[in-house]
C-alpha cells in the first residue's frame, strides 16, 4: 500500500496574502508543515502542491518535492487531485491513500497524520476521514475561520460549518464542540470522484470542501485528537503560533 501526503498552498489567501512564506521562528510556515509531515511514519512521500513559483522554489531549496498546479482551483481538495494526477503520471504508479495536509497548520504532529490515516488503512470502506479536536474557548467557537463539525454516534460527520454549532440558544449547559483539524486522508478513488462532482450549495455557502461529500451522500469519518494545534488565518494567528512554538519539542529536529 502506498500512501502520500499532499500539502496544498498558495500565496493568494484572501485573509492573509503570502502566508505560506511568512516566517515563524525564522522558517517559512510552509517549511514547518513540510518538515513535520515528513516525520510521519505512515507516509511514503510528501509533496507541496502550489500554483506559485515562490513556494515551489522554496520547497525545492530545502530538498522537498513541489508540484506546480493550476491557479484556478477554489478548493484545496481539487488542487490535491491535480497534484496526484501529475505525480502518478510522472512516477507511473498509482497511490492508494492520499493525505491532504493544509499548509496553514504549522503545529501539526506526525502522530496526528498517522491517527487520521490509519482508519482508511484498516477499513477500505472508509472513503475519507477528518481529524477533529475539542474547541477550547468561546472565541474559537465564534471564530468563522475555525471550521466546526457535528457528528453522529457512529463517528461520521453530519455537518461542517463556520458558524458556532451546535447552537446554545435554547441550551443552558456547557456544550462540547469540535473543530476540523485540516489533515484529511482520502482513498484514491474518492479523491478523484470528488474532483469530478459539481460544487454543492452548502459547500459554497460555508466554503468547506467536506460538505460536497455530505451533500452527495458520502460518509466522512471523524477521528478525535488531543493535540493542541492552531491554524494560521491572520497575522494575529501567526504571532500566537510563533509564541506557542518557542518550546515545541519537534523544532530541534529540523531547525
Features:
21% strand; alpha/beta; five-stranded mixed sheet; 255 residues
Walk me through this protein's architecture.
The protein is α/β, with parallel strands linked by helices and about 260 residues long. The protein is about 35% helix and about 20% strand. The protein has helices at about 30-35, 55-60, 75-90, 110-120, 140, 190-195, 200-205, 210-215, 235-245, and strands at about 5-10, 25, 25-30, 45-50, 65-70, 95-100, 130-135, 150, 155-160, 180, 185, 220-225. Strands 5-4-1-6-11 form a 5-stranded mixed beta sheet, with helices on both faces. Strands 9-8-10-7-12 form a 5-stranded mixed beta sheet. Strands 2-3 form a two-stranded antiparallel sheet. A hairpin with a 5-residue loop joins β8 and β9 (about 155-160). α3 crosses α6 (about 190-195). The mean pLDDT is about 95.
**Can you give the mean pLDDT?**
93
**Main sheet record:** 5 strands, mixed
Kindly estimate the percentage of residues that lie in beta strands according to DSSP.
15-25%
* Elements, N to C (H/E): EEEHEHEHEHEHEEEEHHHEH
Radius of gyration: 17 Å
Q: How helical, in percent, are the residues?
A: 25-40%
Overview in brief:
This protein is α/β, with parallel strands linked by helices. It has helices spanning 29-37, 53-61, 76-91, 110-122, 138-142, 188-196, 201-206, 210-215, 235-245, and strands at 3-9, 23-24, 27-28, 45-50, 65-68, 97-101, 129-134, 148-151, 157-161, 178-181, 183-187, 221-224.
Amino acid at each position: 500500500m502506498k500512501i502520500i501526503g499532499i500539502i496544498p498552498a498558495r500565496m493568494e489567501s484572501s485573509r492573509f496574502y503570502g502566508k505560506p512564506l511568512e516566517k515563524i521562528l525564522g522558517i517559512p510556515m510552509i517549511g514547518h508543515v513540510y518538515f513535520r509531515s515528513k516525520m510521519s511514519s505512515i507516509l511514503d512521500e510528501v509533496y507541496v502542491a502550489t500554483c506559485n513559483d515562490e513556494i515551489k522554489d522554496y520547497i525545492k531549496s530545502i530538498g522537498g518535492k513541489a508540484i506546480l498546479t493550476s491557479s484556478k482551483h477554489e478548493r484545496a481538495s481539487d488542487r490535491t487531485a491535480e497534484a496526484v494526477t501529475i505525480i502518478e503520471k510522472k512516477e507511473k504508479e498509482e497511490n492508494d491513500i492520499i493525505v491532504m495536509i493544509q499548509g496553514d497548520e504549522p503545529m501539526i504532529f506526525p502522530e496526528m497524520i498517522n491517527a487520521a490515516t490509519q482508519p482508511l488503512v484498516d477499513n477500505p470502506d472508509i472513503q475519507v476521514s477528518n481529524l477533529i479536536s475539542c474547541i477550547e474557548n468561546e472565541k474559537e467557537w465564534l471564530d468563522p475561520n475555525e471550521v466546526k463539525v457535528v457528528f453522529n454516534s457512529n463517528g461520521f460527520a453530519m455537518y461542517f460549518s463556520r458558524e458556532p454549532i451546535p447552537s446554545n440558544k435554547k441550551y443552558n449547559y456547557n456544550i462540547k464542540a469540535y473543530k476540523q483539524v485540516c489533515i484529511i486522508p482520502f482513498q484514491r478513488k474518492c479523491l478523484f470522484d470528488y474532483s469530478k462532482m459539481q460544487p454543492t450549495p452548502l459547500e459554497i455557502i460555508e466554503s468547506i470542501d467536506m460538505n460536497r461529500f455530505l451533500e452527495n451522500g458520502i460518509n466522512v469519518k471523524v477521528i478525535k485528537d488531543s493535540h493542541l494545534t492552531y491554524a494560521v488565518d491572520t497575522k494575529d494567528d501567526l504571532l500566537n503560533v510563533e509564541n506557542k512554538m518557542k518550546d515545541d519539542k519537534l523544532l530541534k529536529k529540523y531547525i
